[in-house]
Amino acid sequence: MARKVQSVIIDDKGRDYGKEFIITEMSSYAAERWALKALSALIKAGFEIPDETAGMAGIATAGFEAIGKLDFEIAEPLLDEMFDCIKIKPSEKAHPRNLIDDDIEEIKTRIKLRMEVFKLHLGFSDAAV
Fold it and tell me: What is the pLDDT confidence band of residue 39, given thresholds at 50, 70 and 90?
């Protein structure tokens, strides 16, 4: 079975309006490593993850608030890895390509894309994330 793929078209007013991003599910290996690194960092920082949650689900349940409590030097590689599964489709006829810094011009777009990465990997609703 192929990995899940989702198209996200930015509909918020601003410089990113109408841009299309393609999110491809991480491999199970990459997702597990990301979740273990994030959980380890959160536990070392004293953040309590409920016993009934684990992996990316536990982090998503705790929300970005948890990652925001980490020192930036620890959080930065985790945040960067989230964007490794996002590409931009510069035009309707173009093939998706890797992101460059100037592709996303609004902070709210970055946050929206991070939420969409979580939702794609976990099947969560907006309210759950």
Answer: confident
Q: Map out the domains of the chain as residue ranges.
A: 1-25+85-129, 27-74
111 vs 108: CA distance, rounded Å: 5
CB-based contacts of 96, cutoff 8 Å, min separation 6: 22, 87, 88, 89
Reported as a single tens digit per residue, the pLDDT across 98-108 is: 999 999 999 99
CB 125 within 8 A of CB 115: no
**What's the confidence (pLDDT) of residue 124?**
53
The 8-class DSSP code of residue 102 comes to G
Please give the DSSP secondary-structure letter assigned to residue 13. Answer: S
Residues 6+ positions from 26 with CB-CB distance below 8 Å: 3, 34, 84, 85, 121
**How is residue 55 written in tokens?**
């992996």
List the structure tokens of 32.
């597990």
